[in-house]
């Protein structure tokens, strides 16, 4: 049945507007262009729609709109909590992971966490031993958010097919390895500008547990080297591997690692 208009009682007016907007997008028929006679005949209560139809309509709303609509009645709350509604999740900052406007479940197939912010470059991507106390204080408020969230994904989303992490400066090799161990159906892994990711993610993660992987991208990850990339190509030749700039960037080196090198250079110059 093609629905052009829904009518609900006054307490549900907000939800009604959201559903009408979803209907217009779903059926691509603007309400103001529909004949008045047709609109009159199709008037009905929103709660008369069955669960499957409501799921379809909810799928056209963003996370915040779904959450707002779920507070209008128990029936819509059940739709919001249905794991089948949440097969795709996209977050534009780690802080969004704190909100309760989404549901994790076995239906999740595509997960993206992208943080394009100056804070990533100026704070999160700096080596820990070079950060000021102010920068450390900023990081302390969000540094464990993505890792904690990925731990929940490992337990609740075994059917994940695609994972994209971009600008997540605090995730570690163990986070990636845990996801690959738990989400055995993962087909595509994309890591971009994740400074703590090293060859360990490739050797102990992709090589050891990437049986189902078809594509791996590690772009602008400065601590990934050619040795790690060659390990993947040699052991997992079927994986489509790409690494833009990663193996050509200057990796991190702790202060104590630089001292022997400096002394060696001094000796070479002294006796040359």
From TrEMBL:
Q: PROSITE patterns from the xrefs? A: FBOX (PS50181)
Tagged with keyword Lipid biosynthesis: no
Please name the Pfam families in this protein's record: F-box-like
Please tell me whether the keyword Manganese is annotated for this protein. no
Organism encoding this protein? Seriola dumerili
GO CC annotation: SCF ubiquitin ligase complex
State the protein's name: F-box and leucine-rich repeat protein 22
Q: Where is the F-box domain?
A: 43-89
Which PANTHER family would you find in this protein's record?
Answer: PARTNER OF PAIRED, ISOFORM B (PTHR13318:SF190), PARTNER OF PAIRED, ISOFORM B-RELATED (PTHR13318)
What stretches pass through the bilayer? none
Q: Which keywords accompany this UniProt record?
A: Leucine-rich repeat
């Amino acid at each position: 049945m093609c629905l052009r208009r829904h009518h609900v009682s006054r307490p549900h007016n907000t939800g009604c507007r959201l559903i009408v907007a979803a209907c217009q997008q779903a059926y691509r028929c603007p309400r103001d262009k529909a004949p008045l006679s047709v609109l009159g005949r199709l008037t009905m209560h929103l709660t008369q729609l069955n669960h499957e139809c409501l799921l379809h309509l909810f799928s056209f709303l963003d996370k915040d709109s779904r959450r707002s609509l779920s507070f209008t009645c128990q029936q819509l709350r059940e739709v919001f909590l249905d794991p089948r509604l949440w097969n795709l999740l996209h977050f534009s900052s780690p802080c969004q992971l704190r909100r309760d406007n989404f549901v994790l479940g076995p239906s999740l197939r595509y997960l993206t966490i992208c943080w394009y912010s100056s804070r990533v470059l100026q704070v999160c991507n700096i080596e820990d031993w070079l950060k000021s106390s102010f920068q450390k204080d900023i990081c302390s408020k969000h540094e464990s958010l993505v890792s904690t969230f990925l731990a929940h994904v490992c337990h609740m989303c075994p059917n994940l097919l695609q994972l994209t992490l971009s600008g997540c400066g605090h995730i570690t090799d163990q986070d990636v390895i845990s996801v690959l161990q738990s989400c055995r159906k993962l087909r595509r892994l994309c890591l971009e500008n994740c400074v703590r990711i090293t060859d360990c993610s490739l050797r102990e993660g992709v090589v050891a547990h990437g049986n189902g992987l078809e594509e791996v991208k590690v772009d602008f990850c400065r601590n990934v080297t050619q040795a790690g990339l060659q390990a993947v190509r040699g052991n997992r030749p079927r994986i489509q591997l790409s690494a833009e700039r990663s193996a050509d960037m200057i990796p991190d080196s702790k202060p104590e690692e630089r001292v022997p090198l400096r002394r060696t250079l001094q000796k070479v110059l002294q006796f040359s």
